[in-house]
Amino acid sequence: MGVYETTQNNLKKQKIMLSQMQQELQKLPEGTLQRRIRQNRVEYYTRVDGTQLYIPKSQHSLVNDLKRRRVLETAESIAKGNIKAMERLLKEYEPINFDEIERNLPLAYRGLEPVTPEFNPGPFGLFGVL
Description:
By secondary structure, the chain is an alpha+beta fold.
């Protein structure tokens, strides 16, 4: 599988993952998480619409939900950037095909011995480095 096909597959996966993350974010509580240490105890607070609220230990699942929200929001931002980059690559990427290049040359260049590349990109790229 080439770069183009691999990128197409990754793009589809990123779009699916982005959609799933956005659906889950709609279900998670709003707010941010803050942590304070008071008298050698860890206390968690949430901030919603500018109001800071203490989260009692009985609602510790809220702490996990707010952490999950933050992780998913960050992942969502990364996925959007990845999707944009892959769409740009798919739009602009053109593999090098020597036969195709020769078919599109002016008539003066046709009918001559075909050009065969004297290099092998191998697994590490054209110049032997990644």
